[in-house]
Amino acid sequence: MDGQIALAVEGVAKSYGATVAIERLDLALRAGEVHALLGENGAGKSTLVKVLSGVVQPDAGAMTIAGTSFRPRTLTESRAGGVATAFQELSLLPNLTVAENLMLPRMPRGLFGLASGRAARSDATGILHRYGLARIEATALVGALSLADRQRLEIVRAMEHATRVLVLDEPTAALSEVDWLFGLVRQATARGVAVLYISHRLAEVRALCGRATVLRNGRSIATVDLAGASDADIFEMMVGRAVRSDRHARRATSTGPLAMEAAGLAGGGLKDATFALRKGEVLAVAALEGQGQRDLFRMLAGLASPSAGTIRVDGEAVGPRSPKAALKAGGGVAYLPEERKTEGILSSLTTAGNITLPVAGRIARGGFVWGALEERAAAGVAASVDLAERYLSFPIADLSGGNQQKALLARTLLTGARTLLLFDPTRGVDVGTKQSIYSAIRRFAEDGGSVLFYSSELPEIIDLADRCLVLYGGRIFAEHSGDALEEQRLVTSLVGHRGADATAAPAALAVPA
Amino acid sequence: MSAATNTAAGPATTRSQSGLVRGLTSGAAIVALLYVVLYALYGLWEPRALSASTFTSLVNNAAPLAIAAAGETLVVLTRGFDLSVAGVVSLTNVFMAVYPLEGPGGAVLSLLGCCAIGAVVGAVNGWLVAVLRLQTIAATLGTMIVCQGLALVVLDAPGGMVAEWVSYELTDRLFGVVPVSGLVVLAVALVWLAFSRTDTGIGLYAVGADEHAAMLSGVSVRRIRFVAFVGAGMLYGVAGFMLSAQTATGNPNAGAPFLMLVFAAVALGGTSLSGGRGGLVGSIIGAGSLMLLQKVLFSGGVSSFYTGIFQGFVLIAAILFGRAVPRLLGAIR
Amino acid sequence: MSVSRPVSGGFDAAADTRRSGGIGRETINGIVVFALSILLILGSRFVSPALGSWSQVLTVLTLASFLVVLAFGQGLVILVGGLDLSIPALITIGGVLSATWVGAGNPDAWYLLPAILGVCCLCGAFNGFGVTVLKIPPFIMTMATSIILASVALGYTSGTPRGASPDVLTALMKSTWLGVPTVVFFVVVFAVAGWVVQSRTVLGRRLYAVGANPEAARVAGVSVGAVTMTAYVVSAACAGFVGMMLVGYANGATLRMGDNYMLPSIAAVVIGGSSILGGRGSFVGTVGGAVLLTTLGTVISAIGLEQGWRTVIEGGIIVAALFFLREELFARLRRPGRG
Q1: Which residue of B has its CA nearest to A289?
Q2: Exposed (0-12), middle (13-18) or buried (19+): which is C191, by Cβ within 10 Å?
Q3: pLDDT of residue A507
Q4: pLDDT of A272-331, one tens digit each?
């Protein structure tokens, strides 16, 4: 079975107007292999996914599936060719049931040729059982599912339709554990399905994939055996230069004055959080999905009001409020939101307009603002996050995800706030952007600012943080700093195990539910 | 966090809403409750309210709006607005008054004609929106004005006569109790109930909730949108037909009052104006409630000058109430 | 990574093609619309030599003044992602009150005119309250306000509004200066001021931000409620002022004086290239749209077509304008960026 080419992509190119998304892309997937697709944001990965699933048509090149030509014009044609995709942005409808989502676009027939709810339900229940998701009810509305379950459903639906090629685009973005997924992927490959696996998480890629194709600037650079390539080799292929590895020396737990204190904070999924953030400190929050970290950040940022507990910024207590009030509290608190698209960027404004929005009143001359003024005001802070100045006058929607993220970080820096709340600041951005964001954060802390950040990537926490709080079951379960801040101990406390020498935070003495 | 082991697969067991709760909280049930309350008030103030003839005139009054609102709902479900309803109702009304066809056969031909006019307008809308991707409000604003103009071309001032068979039989009662116009409305509702269980019917909800996700789920967004506009246009045609039976005469501006009322009925009926939630049955009862409200206010002694004040506040209250009930029930659960 | 796609896109399935550069596109759009109006006026000379004259241009600008003012308010509401259907009722309120409270030959009562505008602002605040606090869809909220206010106006006047135009309004609408109607100067100043407010002020930036993405605007420290409220209040004030202008123009108020302005106010904004979904657009385009619509109306009525065909042509032009100003045509002109 191995060795047979399941999908061949030869010389595919795609442009949108003047923008070249894919210049020239070659790729060959063998039946039964898991093949990784690596590249920075904007390298052309998502365009390839769209081409394979029939959402867009390539301008040039040819694709073949098991030797026959493959040119899907719609998603259904792509499925008919045996190709199915679990999309990064999730393609589920929140107002329909799990069963209806699994059956779309064609329901099983019942009486008078009408769609039969019962047949759809039993078909869907069968599918859910087959993939180990029996706890999800087929009649539940998808909107009521957790983000992780929606991601699982997206994967299940793709698996169900993938007879030859399965495309998984960032399938673990919302999953905190991957055993379930890896098991299913191995079952699929055992059936001879070729899997194209797209992920930013290199550890996962190494665990699952045999070969990888690296994209850069819309071209396929090389296809390599992962066993024979070091991380540094791969990064170099992706970004076209060697990666700096300036692991900064972790400072001893700062003893500076307090910047932000939370006492007994609760609300939503958060049960009880008490901690203090000092000036000049980079404090990380580590947690599996859904341990209350989102509520914690939203409360601190003024987007949600706590049901109990108090927040103090630079010593002054703050009540229920808005992000606008948070910016003014004490030395100021600025928030970098989780969802870049829905909570972050304002797509019809320019990049400079996005960066200067919170301070529009401050930079205005007599109440007036104009593009050049905004660009001037944003130039300095843009440079500090390595955002090229020419992008400032572009509509932000035209920028790559990584550059958008830099712009949003620049926005929080420009507010002048002395405390930054960064929720997953490097989510879905490429290696080069990550480095820029890391150095901006470090510089900010060295200048006496304080940073509280959540990250889904442990190496990032270990690399960047001075100290790390572990949330579990809505409580601060453990705290690590100094040499104790290392991967093995973090993992242990993330899953709720009390390691032999983990410093127990006072609030975590109660056993989490 | 690839090293984390299997813990997270457990916590989020899903709970499906019970059918009862979902039914009670649906917009149709709430507006039906409103209708019953209004009718009780009407019965209190107006002794003849319970007679067959009063009920028939109520149903006759509400039928055109109800059917037009049903049509509008198809478009609203896909997150669109269709202003052409006013144009199509006017156009079919003058068509009925200028070219009357007598007898039952003539009535059927007229009905088909009205549907055809609506379908053509709907197809134009569908082409503009689904194929050319114009904004729905803007595109249908254009077609509405064109249709209004055409209505004026056909008949430049109120006048004309609708066929007698249509204006008599369709406003009459069957067996002395059942209003014929009510049966037409019922037929529309039944066709919808069947249609909502087709792939296209489910597709309406999919497209309305998230067009992009629907496309990535294999739903043909273009086809669904097109079908929604054509179906809506045909229902506007039927609404114009029923209006003609009511008024028995032609008026090139007959459709203008429908423009706002139709959206009020749709919103009252619990269909979300941002798409993906609701249904035709709610809109039909919503239209009935709007018309009934006028009668109730009149019988309650409110000067006709001020009925609008009540209508406006009822509309606001209904939206707030429709949103509060599911929350309250959810809290009890 | 995102839960579901943001609900911004509207009906553009191909998300990639709608990334047209907002600013360049809107400027082009405004120029195109203005050019069309000029061509239309010049072209009308061929139909009838009486048309296309300087005096006709002044007539068009006078008539367009109502729509320009209205469309500024409507445009702001559309910019923040709403829609104001209460415009006709507010025109009536503004007109009826200025004819009855002030009336002709009563120059001492001029101070009542700002008070009337204040009443209109309160009505706009009611819209804003429903939309921002009660979270009622703008379409429904403003429609309810419209129904309520129409009923109030009907009851207040008992069906027949009395009174004539206050002198100051007559002066604004009927006098001339240097051979040009005063209102033409007024509308030019208003257009420039409107453009400055929308495109060159902090408030304008915040309006665009709220329209583009209210949640993101909130995160960025914008008071979304206050900004949205402002848009509705300004729109109500504009509509009330147009009611006064109409009283000055027609020397009296009627209960239906606003009815013919609701759809054109939306049409002017849309033809001017703004997105009906909010967050995009420029007042330059809107003014162009208002002038184009008015030019169209005068030219076809001058040609002497019967009312029905005139209406058909008007509707057709709206569709045609939308067709030619569609985003895809501008996508090609957009700046090359990263994909």
Answers
A1: B8
A2: buried
A3: 36
A4: 999 999 998 999 998 876 788 889 999 999 998 888 899 999 888 887 688 999 998 888
pTM, whole model, 2 decimals?
0.81
Q: What is the pLDDT of residues C205-228, one digit of tens each?
A: 999 999 999 999 999 999 999 999
Give DSSP secondary structure letters for B33-59: HHHHHHHHHHHHH-GGGGSHHHHHHHH
Instruction: Check if the beta carbon of residue C314 is closer than 8 Å to that of residue B145.
Output: yes
Residue A461 identity (one-letter amino acid): I
Flag whether residue A217 sits within 8 Å of chain C, measured between CB atoms.
no
Q: What is the mean pLDDT of residues C230-252?
A: 95
Alpha-carbon radius of gyration of chain C: 20
* Residue A296 host element (H or E): helix A293-300
CB-CB under 8 Å, C221 with A415: yes
* Count of CB pairs separated by less than 8 Å, A with C: 163
Q: Strands A419-423, A450-454: parallel, antiparallel or unpaired by DSSP?
A: parallel
Cβ(C149)–Cβ(C86) below 8 Å:
yes
Please give the Cα distance from A233 to A242 (Å, whole number): 8
Quick one: pLDDT at residue B118? 95
Quick one: pLDDT band at residue B125, thresholds 50, 70, 90? very high
So what's the pLDDT on residue C177?
87
Cα angle for residues B310, B316, B317 (degrees, 5° grid): 85
Burial of B299-318, coded b for 16+ CB within 10 Å and e otherwise, reads beeeeebebbbbbbebbbeb
For chains A and B, CB pairs below 8 A equal: 140
Instruction: Say if CB A395 and CB A350 are below 8 A apart.
Output: yes
Over 70: is that where the pLDDT of B294 sits? yes
pLDDT at A342 over 70: yes
Q: How many residues does chain A have?
A: 513
- C-beta separation of A447 from A268 below 8 A: no
Structure token pair of residue B217: 């789920």
pLDDT the model gives residue C124: 97
Give the DSSP H/E element, type plus range, for residue A39.
strand A34-39
C296 is written with which tokens?
Answer: 């169209």
Identify the bridge partners of residue A420 per DSSP, sorted by sequence position.
Answer: A334, A451
Written as one string, the DSSP assignment of C151-178 is HHHHHHHTT-------HHHHHHHH-EET
Reduce the DSSP state of residue A240 to 3 states and report it.
coil
Gap between the Cα atoms of B278 and B205, Å rounded: 9
- In chain B, % of residues over pLDDT 90: 35
In angstroms, the CA B125 to CA A250 distance is 64
Interface contact C9-B134, CB threshold 8 A: no
- Judge whether residue C263 has pLDDT over 50: yes
